[in-house]
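FIELD: query
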Amino acid sequence: MYLDNCVDIDFGASYYFLRSWLIKAGQNYMKKTKDIQNVTKDKILEVSGKLFVRHSYRGVSLSMIAERVGIRKASLYYYFKNKEDLYFAAVEKMFEELDFEMEKIINKDIDADKKMKGLIVTYIDFSLKKEKFIRAVIQNFPTRKKQKKRFDELTKKREAIIGKVKPVLRDCLKKKANGIDLEMMACIVMGGINLIMEDLIYNDNKDSVNSRELAKKVFAIMVKR
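FIELD: result
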């Protein structure tokens, strides 16, 4: 009698509804977990990059990085195999960030002169922000020969950035570009900026840098105008 008065239940539909809900909830949880992991990994790379530049590869420990990030040392091994792996990941991230900033200038609809000045300003500002990010780190890495493959990957990233500067240089120089090794010229320009920034940063004069004024001077010397 009681059963006759009950509303019919479609157990099949209920099962599939519950199954779908659980799958969706699981996917949302995984996505949230992944987002948290990505944020933590980015923070580890940011902090470790600054420490490697300031204290050299030898002067930085995983304990130091973990303390600055605010996590346990053991948690670092969830993301990276060891200190070397973390080091290369941090430097690669810096290259990617620089590449991203330069791409924004290259994709602007402006003339070549403004584009070149913009690239120089970007490189100067990035050097200030990262405190001479690449040269100081690579010079202090202790086992370069053993890590040739990883260093070759960094070299490719550097060459890719140089490759993006070359066409802009060509457009700036116009007829003067004939017979000039643009790759060498791009390296000289970036290397010159490195030397200037190194002197300013290590003598604690980086706050006095006006990137736009410095870019104008570098540009004027470069194109001889």
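FIELD: remark
The longest helix spans residues 11-55.
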